[in-house]
Amino acid sequence: MENKENAIEFYTGAGVCTVSFTSARHINRISKLYESNRSDFVYFTKNHDGSVCAKIPLSWVRITPPTKRELSESEREVLRQRLADARKH
Asked: With a threshold of 0.85, does the pTM exceed it?
């Protein structure tokens, strides 16, 4: 697997940050945000190699760990049944 660089750069107090993505997941996400929020972007560029670079509000950047849930066996069974039902449809 090829390593690809993704970066977020900002200066304290600037209120905006520059983001650069090469991963498809983040490219798709930032592209959708650009389509629906063009006025919030200072700029948005798709590069010839498929990567994107944009300047966005710093308030959009969040660092949050995933939520860990402890489930009882009965809760797990309910979730298993929901998943099985969803797969039938």
From this structure: no
